[in-house]
Amino acid sequence: MQNLVVYCADIGSVATGNFGWARRPVDSVTETGTDIQEFADRVAWDLTEDRPVALGLECPLFVPLPDDPTHLTKARRGEGRRPWSAGAGPGALAMGITESAWILRRIRSAVQPEIKASLDWSEFESRQQGLFLWEAFVSATAKGTTHTGDAVIGIDTFIAGLPDIIGINAIPAESVISLIGLALVRTGWTSDPQVLPRGASSSKPERAFSCTLLCLPLASRIFRSIEGAIATLRDPFGCRSGRECPVSYRERIGAQLADLKLPGAVEALDGILARIDGGELAGVDAIEALLGSQIELRNQRRLQTAMRSSRLPAIKTLADFDFTFQPSIKREQIESLHQLGFVQRKENVIFLGPPGVGKTHLALSLAVTTAQRGRRIYYGSLADLIDSLEEAQTSGRLNHRLKTLTHPALLVVDEIGYLPITRNGAMLFFQLMSRRYEHGSTVLTSNKGFEEWGSIFGDDVMASALIDRLLHHCHIV
Length: 477
What we know:
By secondary structure, the chain is an alpha/beta fold. It has helices at about 35-50, 90-110, 120-125, 145-160, 180-185, 205-215, 220-230, 250-260, 265-275, 285-310, 330-335, 340-345, 360-370, 380-395, 400-405, 425-435, 455, 460-470, and strands at about 5-10, 20-25, 30-35, 55-60, 60-65, 115-120, 130-135, 175-180, 200-205, 350, 375-380, 410-415, 440-445, 475. It is flat. The chain starts with a strand and ends with a strand.
């Protein structure tokens, strides 16, 4: 399915830090986190960008409702030795339904009313949009060592089963009561009672699957691979006296890196092994080089995703900026801003100056750096942003548009002062900045000084209030 984004959350106590999530577009790399609010907001963001989302929850989404009361707490068919009612079953069940409902409510409040949720893969696949809910059943020998690890295992299993999600369903639903159906009704996704007796597709990894991918720490796996390569340098074909010649170490390491889903490291492997052969790299340096190659590819993919979703007009970096052309700019300040502490603290940055001095270049480079760190960004000129807000106001979707523009960790507002703004547009922009205040960072560029913003926005009082709000936590360049 084009543009499909798969999420999985390992449900656990948020208060004690036992919640973990993972996100992966089917053609990209995995991101993980432990914050339940960020998880729900990321799902909402993808939905507002018209990406179909498959959302997995690692908790029982339905339980049996048999005719025979003696079977009420028995395992669902396919659960094996770990039924939903085992161990901490009732507590886990309560936590699962409440956290699932909380997540669904937060997503529902942030997306358009026309976005639908489904438990039917065929329906979701034919619609190619909206939200599909599935159960990640990760237990026993298939479990990882962390909550985010379990979420990654769930995603790996789901994607491995594409496109036959119905065919890989691990826990057939017979006579059941749907807990996720109750959550959908409670949070306003549907009012159809037909979801209540409906099960959900369940994705269950096998033992070999999880152990191959996640039972060994990543650094340990790579170190063993490099260590083995160094040990066989004197025997480049991997042959041992008196033994049959096995696969070469290059192929062994390549297979292990591919197994770990590290395409950047695989691509760099030949060059790194050549440097080992030439005595340029030792084991630890080779590990660092492999990891660096993977991180570089991950950042490139993040940036490509950001370019598609954030409306960035171009990729600009700090390395490309000519400080000798603008000696008045303090290099130390700019380099410090690119450490992104201001994003973490939800502060603002304002670039002021005449045309042609590099304001937009530096604003874009901050956005690019933020995207490479895995944070959401969005770009727009002031005129374009106001046009989108006025259009949303006309169509009755203003609140949704404001929420969408509030979510990014960094919003770039370019070209303040280049085009006239209506009073209504100025009021809408003030609403946006008020919503983002202490919720996200905003980078603004303007060719006008603050004393001229009253004429830009057509109202001195509103401009003064806007400037006060922006400058409360702000860096001026």
